[in-house]
Amino acid sequence: MRRTPANVCGDRIADPWGNRTPYGQGGQWPVRTDTCLAAGVAEDEVEAWVQAASLLHSDGDAMDIAVRDGRIVGVRGRAGDRVNRGRLEPKDLYAWQANGSADRLTRPLVRDGGRLVECDWTAAMDRIVTGSRELIASEGPEAVAFYTSGQLFLEEYYTLAVLARAGIGTPHLDGNTRLCTATAAEALKESFGSDGQPGSYEDIDHADAIALFGHNIAETQVVQWMRILDRIDGPQPPHLLCVDPRLTPVARRATVHLAPRLGTNVALLNALMHEIIRHGWTDPAYVARHTVGFDALREQVKPCTPRWAAEICDVPAAAIGEAAELLGTADRLLSTVLQGFYQANQATAAAVQVNNLHLIRGMLGRPGAGVLQMNGQPTAENTRECGADGDLPGFRNWQNEDHVADLARVWNVEPSAIPHDAPPTHAMKIFQLAEEGAVRMLWISATNPAVSLPELARIRSILSREGLFTVVQDLYLTETAQFADVVLPAATWGEKTGTFTNADRTVHLCEKAVDPPGEARPDLDIFLDYAARMGFEDKDGGPLVHWSGPEEAFEAWKLCSVGRPCDYTGLSYGKLRGPSGIQWPCTDQAPDGTARLYGDGVDWAHPDRCETYGKDLVTGEPLGEERYRSMNPDGKALIRPAPYVAPQEWPDENHPFHLTTGRTLYHFHTRTKTGRVPQLADAAPDVWVEIAASDAAHLGLAEGDLVEVTTRCGALRGRLRITSLRPGVLFVPFHYGYWDTPAGSAPVPGEAGRAANELIATLWDPVSKQPQFKTAAAALSLVERAAARPDH
Ligand SMILES: Nc1nc2c(c(=O)[nH]1)N[C@H]1C(S)=C(S)[C@@H](COP(=O)(O)OP(=O)(O)OC[C@H]3O[C@@H](n4cnc5c(=O)[nH]c(N)nc54)[C@H](O)[C@@H]3O)O[C@H]1N2
Ligand SMILES: Nc1nc2c(c(=O)[nH]1)N[C@H]1C(S)=C(S)[C@@H](COP(=O)(O)OP(=O)(O)OC[C@H]3O[C@@H](n4cnc5c(=O)[nH]c(N)nc54)[C@H](O)[C@@H]3O)O[C@H]1N2
Ligand SMILES: [Mo]
To answer: Would you state the pLDDT for residue 789?
Structure first.
């Protein structure tokens, strides 16, 4: 039985951002505590409030979980936390109900005679251990691959990274962060030599201009949008620039809104920098002291006039001029970048141009002057820093033998035990290797690739390949789990303990509040169990993975982070039980954490210390150590120009529309949690297709008509919504898979589906290897008129 919770803080489906608490520039954001409790439960009836933080976006909103009779009965924002100061957004207010969903996995499943049947943990783990041993013996460690998440805890990623890299010795370990923030990481590496977010959310309090590049923050980091709204309503409000082809809630409040053609971000940025340089709005002293590469950038953008870009981007040249003035004359400029850049054509090149803009203006490392190359997923930062993505733990450089030797020392293994003779394998390549039969075992944890990867027909055929042994570790029998050979039931948020780090480096502790259902186990326990059964050893014959719980794993990670940009040595579980999360690096010298990186120039770009020697921003080819040393001998910030290159996916006669995909405020990804919560499911029950009014009129289509969208990859059906977006563009939310359709599974080949990724081609940015979910060429046709046409 579903019980409707009484939301103590009003109807936050109708009013997602809640009441305003205005404040002025440089002031402290006022507290506002948001609460949601189950119907019939009063605050004083709650038996325990257990500390946690949000796992439904990268904001890291701190909250307490309300517990009664061993069950979760609600949540309340933590007023003392630096990130949200008590606020919670709709998903967090309601989604805790999904923990108690009746269809949670409670026992392991194994495939027998073609069907998934329940078994005990010993039988399931035996199958995995026997399978991996046989494959490693017959084919070598490279037959085994891991595809993990941006939604587990730091302790879980670190354990997985150690067992995969030094235990098995496979280079095939990556996260779905490849789909999400691979470009954020890559852009930071290309500009600053290392991953690590320069800015802080507190920059919102100080900025006089805020620029959002391909970032619908109002719907995707809802609480930081409340912060921006509170600044807008207060004294000395900041100017806002929004770069997005749709009239998003952000665009509606913007001082200047540019709605460029899809995938033309680099052209636009080059014109903006052209104007900034032409007007002398640069900071020559900062450029000389802290950067290399300015002359090359100036040459690159010399021909990129607003008129040139207006042609390519189809935005008025005058508007580009206004945007340049907003950016060029700000004293404290904060920029954020997200998927409208990271998942579009020339992802890394475009994101790097935002870094360039800040470097030439000296807008870094001061209150209000900063860049946030955003994360999307709640724990994506940890996937990256723990090396569960395609990098070595602690932002070490796989091409630097000293870095590998240092990691080998931490793990007490020989450097040769850590694969590093080629770049670690990225997720798109892992699936390709599985398709070709080189990868024979694929262990998928906390991600749902059968909905979230591009070209789903292909992904389904890979996952159902004869000869690919698939393990899926999830809460539910997802679209992906349906293909598995072994399904492991996992515990989740509220049912296990661990830490994670948000997009502005704030580390939170998230504690266990209730027991998981049935035999479900924390992901950490599953990885530890596997490591023990496999008997992985260090070079002295001791256990390679020598910890047995989250706090011990955290302490082990701290040793791996010593002296690295993401130094955690000043943190402990005890300290994280304080009123607020804390930003890394946190050390003896900086015991309260570090608000901003690069206050006094860049410190991780030195050739001996950098995480990467860089890549060509057009081809993705590595530049190599020698080139990097000659380019940046002193380790300054790198200004890296890039020419505009047109997208591969471009409308033509057969596919006249430009299709893009993204999110709605009410759902998280493939809706495994939010789709199981009545308030959120009802707010956005099914897929839709957005079209501009002029296009709808031209085609004689109306609101609510059932349409079919087709691309060269596949087809999708959904109801039409007429909205304000660029004419010629269609938008489809990517949240809707098949688990809650009548059939419960994907369409048969040739039939239209409802998942956006039926339509998206397998294309990725050559630099970050992030797929291009935001740019496809598509056709649109009417299937059936709306039942009752709404009156106009
Ligand atoms: N409600 C909600 N919040 C979430 C999530 C969720 O699923 N639901 N997921 C979290 C995660 S993992 C992520 S990664 C973030 C993503 O957060 P966002 O990046 O803010 O979300 P998206 O909707 O994917 O894309 C942002 C915008 O990019 C625009 N866009 C599309 N193509 C282009 C282009 O070519 N150029 C430009 N300039 N813009 C373009 C779209 O119109 C869209 O408004 O959200 C996080 N927060
Ligand atoms: N077309 C299109 N496609 C996209 C995007 C887009 O904008 N457009 N965005 C991309 C981006 S940015 C992202 S981040 C991805 C997201 O794509 P996915 O990661 O595939 O989406 P989720 O639904 O978050 O999948 C997470 C899975 O983990 C499970 N889970 C949750 N908590 C736990 C836990 O504690 N333990 C375990 N073991 N499992 C758990 C959930 O039930 C769910 O099945 O999608 C990408 N795909
Ligand atoms: Mo993401």
So the answer is: 56
